[in-house]
Amino acid sequence: MESQENKLKKYAPKIIIPILIVIAIGTVFVIKARQQQDTNNKIGSIVENKEGSIADDNRESDDQTLDFALHVEDKLDLDRLKSYGLPIMIDFGADYCPPCREMKPTLEKLNEELKGKVIIKYVDVEKLTKVAQDYPIRVIPTQVFYDKEGNPFNPSDPDAAGMYIYSHRETNEHLFTVHEGLMTETDILAVLREMGMEE
């Protein structure tokens, strides 16, 4: 009869080797699972950052879309508009005003055609009274002009263009260049060209 010790020596490798193989496979599985989790975390982080960047880009794009949209919806950030280095025309009007309604298709057409060359904005004085209060609006429609350097437009012949120049009472600093009343497409284009609009 075989001794207990001999049986152990004979069957030990048959038992231990499969156990070691199972442990090795388990270890490899755990290591691979951790590596996959680390990779997923890194990818998730990259995607999150890219999505954040895309969101920021979209926000920037949305802001630019609003900057070049004709209608002012809430507030008029003149400093931001001036930062584009383009001539700016701001038209103040209202829906109840016949000349304003007559100008509206012209403003829409020019805003669409000249996007990226000039900034044309329309402010409804009835809806945005606080915005209009910052400008010398006596009648509607009234247009306010800034050249591409962001300064009040300095027309070569204000009288011929029907422009009013508003200056500071004490310092004589040029504050506004304003046209009151209806402007035709030809009138608007002539002023925009004189302000430095690139063709």
> What's the gyration radius in Å?
36 Å
Which residues form runs of ≥5 with pLDDT under 50?
A: 42-57
How many domain units?
2
CATH superfamily of the largest domain: Glutaredoxin
What is the makeup of the main sheet?
Answer: 5 strands, mixed
State which percent range the strand residues make up. 5-15%
Name the CATH class of the largest domain.
Answer: Alpha Beta
Report on this structure.
The protein has 199 residues and is of the alpha+beta class. The chain has 2 domains: 68 residues; 125 residues, 3-Layer(aba) Sandwich (Glutaredoxin). It has 6 helices and 5 strands. The chain has a 5-stranded mixed beta sheet. Helix 3 links the parallel strand 1 and strand 2.
List the helices and strands and how they pair.
Elements lengths: L3 H65 L9 H5 L5 E6 L4 H16 L5 E6 L4 H4 L9 E5 L11 H4 L1 E5 L6 E7 L4 H10 L5
Parallel strand pairs: 1-2
Antiparallel strand pairs: 1-3, 3-5, 4-5
In summary, what is this structure?
The chain has 199 residues and is an alpha+beta fold.
What would the keywords be for this entry?
199 residues; Glutaredoxin; 6 helices; 52% helix
